[in-house]
Design a protein that fits this description.
The chain has one domain. The chain has 5 helices and 2 strands. About 60% of the residues lie in helices and about 0% in strands. The chain is elongated and about 90 Å long. A hairpin with a 5-residue loop joins strand 1 and strand 2. Helix 3 runs antiparallel to helix 4. It is mainly alpha-helical.
Length: about 170
Amino acid sequence: MADNRISANLSQTDREVVMQAIATIREKLPFLIDLTPEERRYLPKLGDKSRAFVTKALEVAAQNPDFLPRSFDVDEMRRDVELFEALYPVLLSLTQLQELVDDTFIATGSEAYTAALAVYNYAKVSGNITGLDAVIDDMGRRFTRKPRKTQPQASIISDENNSVIQP
């Protein structure tokens, strides 16, 4: 294993502590919602370019509530803006953490799979391992492919005049 990028373990105790920390995060953010893919697609998005626009609109609404309909809730808009701003650094931090976990997960899986392939290949080539033939055959099933179904060929072919042509 020439390219071993990570060598670590996660104890059961540490894993439980991490899972509890995640549970604590969920407890502290009880208002989190789950959008459907369709909802995600159609909701207007507030990105970096629109943040200043939203802030200015909130100030206009707060300073000039007379032109807004009575049903418009300026305080609710303010809460939404404040929550968005408060969640932004949390989102950045969690996104960075998720990327690190994803990359580590992919790398360790790759290293484990590469090592397993080496074991399989060494065992196949060796041939001197008594009692492991069945296990090696079982491991080899991972690489067997199902044969593709072939299309049945027509035995009679006709030309544009509907004359029968023998293949």
